[in-house]
Amino acid sequence: VEALYGLLENKDVRADVFRFLVKFARDGGDDELLERSERRALESFADDDFERGAVLSDLARLNRDVFKRDAEAADFAARAWRLDLTSDEAFDTAVDIARGLGSFEALLGEIDDAIATTSEDQPEIAVGILIQKALLHFAELEDPEGAGATYEAALSLDPEHEGALDGLIEILRDGDDAERLIHRLKARLALT
């Protein structure tokens, strides 16, 4: 165990070593090693977004599952996702933690901030985020109107995005706006 603690002092600790330390500490019930691994990992990957994202996702789950620190878990999950806005895994972790907290308010704020910072310079990333937000509205918040409006926002950036069109069409099929449904079905058919 002392050798494992020594790894924490090594400046070249990689994410897979951190994951090993976490697994070892969990299996052995060593909360001190978990805590020290957490702190050290944050310092280690300051310059590597990929590794840092993986560690932040692990730390989100660690704080939720082991330390029962829901607010910290949500913060780590959001930070991991913000490092790679295209990562479905990081986004799913953030959604899972928000679900556990029983509130999606903070995550929706992060999503809106990400959309605002990407929609002009990186519209393709903004469209992906909007689709994730629409799915969140539909599946988690049971808000088809919010999902529909979000799909419409995605289509305003990319009128031919098949995923956004398909999602909106699915919602419109359950609604009472036949004219809008027909318009979107025609747009979808034009893409094939």
Describe what you observe in this structure:
There is one protein chain. The chain is an all-alpha fold and 192 residues long. Helix content is 78%, strand content 0%. The chain has helices spanning 2-7, 15-28, 31-44, 49-65, 70-83, 88-101, 105-118, 123-140, 144-157, 162-173, 178-190. Helix 4 (49-65) runs antiparallel to helix 5 (70-83). The N and C termini lie far apart (60 Å). 36% of the residues are buried.
Strand count, sense and closure of the main sheet? none
Structural class by secondary-structure content: mainly alpha
| Number of separate strands | 0
> What is the helix fraction of residues, given as a range?
over 70%
**How many whole angstroms does the radius of gyration measure?**
20 Å
Q: How far is the first residue's CA from the last residue's CA?
A: 60 Å
Large-scale geometry: elongated
The number of distinct helices, counting runs of at least 4 residues, comes to 11
Strand content: under 5%
Low-confidence stretches: none
Order of helices and strands: HHHHHHHHHHH
Mean pLDDT across all amino acids:
87
